[in-house]
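User: I need a structural model of Imidazolonepropionase from Enhydrobacter aerosaccus for a docking pre-check later this week. Nothing fancy, just the predicted structure tokens so I can convert them on my end. Input:
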Amino acid sequence: MSFLFKNLNLLDPRWKEARGGYEVLVEGDTIKEVSPKAIKSKTATVIDCGKRTLMPGLIDCHVHTHHSEVYINRMEAVPLTLMMARSAGRLKRMLDRGFTTVRDAGGADWGTKTAVEAGLIPGPRLFISCRSIGPTGGHNDRNRRTDIGPPCLCCNGMVFIRCIADGPDEVRKAAREQMRQGADQVKLMVSGGVASPYDPLESLQFTVEEITAAVEEAQAFGRYVLTHAYTPEAISRAVNCGVRTIEHGNLVDAPTARLMAKKGVYMIPNLVTYDAMKRRAKEFGMPNEMLEKNDEVLKYGYAELEHCRKAGVKMAYGSDLLGALENEQTGEFRIRGEVMPAIDVIRSATLIGAEVVRQEGKLGTIQPGAYADLLVVDGDPLKDLGLFQDGGVNLPVIMKAGKFHKNAL
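Assistant: Understood. Predicted structure tokens for Imidazolonepropionase:
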């Protein structure tokens, strides 16, 4: 199939503004031609955009498609069948919001990815981490103090989304196993976290030797390591060990941001998740000790953005929303838009996201040879980032790989 998009304002994030007079020809799953002049095609179906904005599909670099409970420990009562059924709805709703690509930061496996690619489940193209890896007693360890060990993998959603490894050899083996299972990247927990019961935020998790083992294995397999980290100490340790992206990073300081910039490490802030948890997580069972840690990291969100901007750290878009909080996925646009130019926020969810998933020139841009992941927006997002809110009501067209997920024109 081929489609010719006409009568539009083209917003390619490589530019600073939308430009009128362009036409875009899609053939198969890719963009064939982009021109400021009329494009001739005898076979293409014409899509009249009515002067609306045409832009690339959005990229969320930190989601958890399988984390269907806000209080993650409740995943213990979720069998794999129910977990996957819930995930199917979550994936479709992400695509409904205009996210044509997501990077799952722990949980989604090759079966989920294959189901989407085969068209069995509507959803974004997936870059998966499989099970995240953490040490005993750390952010990944949700075992109760009365447990003597984790249950089997078949009946407990909690076990399926994370694993525990101690020592360089165990970490090396765990990383190899995730890549054997099809991981596009390996996820490590290297500091304390909010949604975990026992570990202080400032705790350092995994030694230099353990982190290095995972990095070596990922690089040897043609993959890379992303790390959950909050404090300057945890971030610096991970960066010096060769990780490629830092997730969250709320407590980063100026020297650490400069180190990240020097090493070319990406930051993926998730400020919307802390905002949403403060307002809503208690009603979904999150205990007070976790909410107190959430309040602590929430204080530093805007400072994180400022430190990274000043240092020149590239920041991708990430949401990290658990369970019922998922409907706030586009809220990160609003938060970042308060302190960043709209074009920079959009680039975080397009061009920079494409770099993170190593698809430069293929995703996050509108140019010949790129995948035909396209949105038509009722209005100009550069003037109103709120157009991405409300579950995609302002997106009359959502196209992924040359096929319409939605066409209301």
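Before docking, keep this in mind: Residues 179 and 221 are 8 Å apart (CA to CA).
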